[in-house]
Amino acid sequence: MIHVAVSGCAGRMGATVVAAVLAADDMDLVCGIDPHQTPAAFPVYKSVPEALAAQDTIDVLIDFTEPSSVADNIRSCLAAHINCVVGTTGLTPADLEKLAEQVCDNTCLFYAPNFTIGAVLMMQFAEMAAKYFPEAEVIEFHHCHKKDAPSGTAMNTARRIAAARDHTSLAPGRETEVADGQGARGALVEGVPVHSVRSNGYSASQEVIFGSMGQTLTIRHDSWDRASYMPGVLLAVRAVIDREGLIIGLENLMA
């Protein structure tokens, strides 16, 4: 039995994670962690240190919180030799490498910008296409309450496209932005324009548009329910028990 704590358990994603852990035959929900404590059928603590002081059986912390708190949550757990499965966006590769310095033997820090299998495949397909198309742009669509823009998935997609191709895009059109419309061509992430849409009606969607002479290719993934993340989250929880060190990306667990 894997003993799990869920940080951010009162949030939308956290509540879905709680339900998935409770439904898993091989997992036991030890506690939840959330500053907005709400009545629950399991112990809920206001902070990770408070939970660690009260519970000594936690094997894995699942963190879906906020960029402002996730790093401290990870540090506290790694210091206690607790594996971490992190879906909170806002951590850069440099942040993760720094946190990984605190990983002890037989302890794993796993981070994924996206836990949906479809999104992982979308990024892999985009990486494959990048070397054949001179231009690429990423457009991501999320609900208006998302706390970061661009999304972690969009940032990761852009970085993977940039790494896969043997040229630097000119990101055409930025030089034509009018004075009152600067930013219309999007944010540049390692030379790849990234556009963020925030609106009611969306959950999480992303498309990558590639262009070359006389043709375009669009790769799109849509997630309409947070339940789509849960197979990936549970896969990661089961995987970190037998791994150690820093692992980034669900694709590294899907082989």
TrEMBL record:
Named in its record, the pathway it takes part in is: Amino-acid biosynthesis; L-lysine biosynthesis via DAP pathway; (S)-tetrahydrodipicolinate from L-aspartate: step 4/4
Q: Where does NAD(+) bind?
A: G8, C9, A10, G11, R12, M13, G87, T88, T89, A112, P113, N114, F115
Please give one Pfam family short name: DapB_N
* Positions annotated to bind (S)-2,3,4,5-tetrahydrodipicolinate: H143, G152, T153
Q: What positions constitute the catalytic site?
A: H142 (proton donor/acceptor), K146 (proton donor)
Enumerate the subcellular locations listed in this protein's record, separating them with semicolons.
Cytoplasm
For this chain, the family text in UniProt reads: Belongs to the DapB family.
What this protein is called in its record is 4-hydroxy-tetrahydrodipicolinate reductase
Q: Which organism is it from?
A: Cryptobacterium curtum (strain ATCC 700683 / DSM 15641 / CCUG 43107 / 12-3)
